[in-house]
Amino acid sequence: MKRITIRDVSERAGVSTAAVSYVLNGREGKVSSETVAKVRKAVEDLNYIPDFSARSLANNKSKLIGVVIPQTEDRKQLLLQNPFYSELICGIEARLRQSGFHMILSGVEKGEGYLDTSMQRNLDGAIITGIYQESFYEDLKKVRMPIVLVDSYVYDSHFHVVGIDDELGGYLATRHFIENGHTNIALVTGLIRKDGVVEKRFLGYKRALKEAGLFYNPDHVFEHSVTYEYGQEAARLIATKYPEITAVFATSDLMAMGVMQGVRDEGKEVPEHISVIGFDDISVARMCTPPLTTIKQDAIAKGIMAAERLLAAIENPDAEHSENLMVMPLSLIERNTVRKLP
Amino acid sequence: MKRITIRDVSERAGVSTAAVSYVLNGREGKVSSETVAKVRKAVEDLNYIPDFSARSLANNKSKLIGVVIPQTEDRKQLLLQNPFYSELICGIEARLRQSGFHMILSGVEKGEGYLDTSMQRNLDGAIITGIYQESFYEDLKKVRMPIVLVDSYVYDSHFHVVGIDDELGGYLATRHFIENGHTNIALVTGLIRKDGVVEKRFLGYKRALKEAGLFYNPDHVFEHSVTYEYGQEAARLIATKYPEITAVFATSDLMAMGVMQGVRDEGKEVPEHISVIGFDDISVARMCTPPLTTIKQDAIAKGIMAAERLLAAIENPDAEHSENLMVMPLSLIERNTVRKLP
DNA sequence: TTGTAGGCGTTATCAT
DNA sequence: ATGATAACGCCTACAA
């Protein structure tokens, strides 16, 4: 069964391929309504479906968006196990599809770049989440498609950025502990990398401590790649070696939940013995017991926003780039994991 | 900045474009090792990156795989909020990338087909999860790319299938309750659809009841689309209207966790008042409190397997189709949500 | 072994 | 308003 081409349609409709192309692309000003009707009918009859590869070749528009998310270091798998990314992807995909774009979702090997993929596929744009080495971004700048960075503090006029005020989030969480009488507050966090979100959350944590006249103790910072298991581990360390700690600010809900489990593993209770605040407000945060107090951000909305910024930039390649930083709202959600100390 | 083409490479290397194409595609038998070296050098020097659109146009191979997962009915967003799908996707993407393929991830609108996408993008294959209407599959059969159905009981020689023995899963869970002395066992389940996985799990549930000489009570079946919230709702109903029920088999962990929360909302405890078994063993199942007894399947492995089957079918289009059903292992994981009745 | 040239499906530039 | 026709980048008979 051979493919139906634009030529088949043109013959059937008794017009030229150019005419068909015009009506297909909505340039209907250029063609008589009679021709439009004939073409539409032929398209319908033949069940014609355009070939995007050919289109891409002819006009460099692929209707394809590259989406990159971090992957686990060990198994090279997407970090989708962190629900935050799942939700982000949901938002991106939904918005993209709504505008007739498709999404190529992939991780990128450590040390590899994204230039190859972007050129091979003639991507119309890309959404990048996670933090990479300098050269990765330098590479990306060489390509002329619009790029949206999600959760990055790599400011550069080449990139659009969608994020939140991570420093504020860290500050709010820590201050909430302080307001509830806590003075020994641990930080359980993902790897603190330059220009990354956790670095800012860490900064907010320190600011709140300083503001309250509290001593910042580096021993109370537990840093590791973002996993549930390390949350458990950190709780264990805290219970056994740092009895003075009464509160834990985890820079992601995933770790916070690990901490909660770890606390219980040690025969203690949340929040009776240890208070916990997380970050993200992934959907399980309200499902766990006790429901987790956390810094809420709306990952789905973030994804939708990232997609929208990208689509706008694709529409209008040389628009004002001054307004290329979008900061989404965030708030502290009080649930049941923070105890008020007397 | 113009694109580097195969012609640029050929000129730089002082050979023909055909020669370049040959070494690029590994047909090195057709070309002298000297030429190979020259071409490689030129490719390197020029930083040549092939255009997959052009390739796809020329030989109908796109190195692109379509992956379809269900979406929420209301918001048209991917069902990634169910970690089971996240993990599945992780497996698929990792395996695909390893072989140089890219994945287009998308949902499909109710009533829409996937034929358009598959033709537009010249997909080399597709992995479909979820259950759709008859016509969806009929459509899919018209296209000649290999297709792997994950978790489907739509047997057809056109499709490869990767799944588990869902009926057995349902049976094992139910029997486990019975062995622990439970006789009034509710089923909290996603929509029971023909040829879907939950239908089989439901069948397994009934078989176990029957085998034990227990009465199957339709009132004890709580059916709804798969959400955490409905799990809560079902628990509420059970607590208030069906006090005789002592055990709940949920056909997905997501619902099981909702049930657990719902039970607590009613001031009762798991497993003291209500025992719970889930299905899937998503990663949070072991993280929740108490850790959830569940039917374990390895979603990541399932994804990898699905990708592998597809890749094999692409390699070898007219291979034996008799072995196109792959059943992955499954097992009951005992944790702490089932109480042994006296 | 190597090179030439035609074709893949579409868009865009010209004439008409 | 419409229709030839030349790109677009690559592959692959076929010819040399």
From TrEMBL, chains A, B:
Matching PROSITE patterns: HTH_CROC1, HTH_LACI_2
GO molecular function term, any single one: transcription cis-regulatory region binding
Any single Pfam family the record assigns to this protein: LacI
InterPro entries noted in UniProt: Cro/C1-type_HTH (IPR001387), HTH_LacI (IPR000843), LacI/GalR-like_sensor (IPR046335), Lambda_DNA-bd_dom_sf (IPR010982), Peripla_BP_I (IPR028082)
Keywords: DNA-binding, Transcription, Transcription regulation
CDD domains hit by this protein: HTH_LacI, PBP1_LacI_sugar_binding-like
Domain HTH cro/C1-type: 2-49
Domain of life of the native organism: Bacteria
HTH lacI-type domain: residues covered: 4-59
Protein name per UniProt: LacI family transcriptional regulator
Species whose genome carries this gene: Cohnella endophytica
